[in-house]
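Researcher: Good morning. I'm working through a list of sequences from a screen, and I'd like to move beyond sequence-only analysis. For each chain I'm collecting a predicted structure so we can compare shapes side by side. This is the next one on the list. No need for commentary yet; just the structure.
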Amino acid sequence: MDIKLTKVEIRQHLAELLEELTALCDMYDNGQEIVHRSIAMKLRVLFHHTPHSNSLIQQLGISDKLMISTCGKKIPGNLFKHYHGLASILADGEGKSLFVPGKLSSPRREVFIKYWWEEEVILSDDSGHDFFRKNIVLAIANKDGGGHVDPSLPLQYHDLKSGKTSGVIFNRDGVTYTSNPIIASIRQVAQEVIVSFE
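Model: Good morning. Structure tokens for this chain:
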């Protein structure tokens, strides 16, 4: 027989999840980008709700909560098809350009969870495919090494992850390379969550 958790116990799970998320972000910021998968798993537990999976926000009855969004607005008709709403491009100490999370230097506004999780475009690839927090988090958590490794990945996600459709090609010392905006975007989503639940 299962015992239903009390609201106090569920709130304790939320507090622990936010503490773990903060620790993972500290690890990421100290150069351990590999924790992006663990960050995605925590985000999945907090927000992903289906008939077979109960999100913490649903269990707490806060699915109408306002969230901080630091995502810029995608401009329709922009000359560039690609869009990186949560990540910035920065040169590292060796002069190599890479994507980094925008932290809270980006514009800040409050939006409802449903829009924040499922509807706000945070990335667009140069093929015109839009990505939302939900589909990026679930691709990592459910298929790309978070809680499971699928033998195949959704094509658009794979191409964006590989840099093939990130829309940005860098050149250093005559060598061209691409970069992946997904990992930095996941770190920024975690920052939004931490600030939203302060």
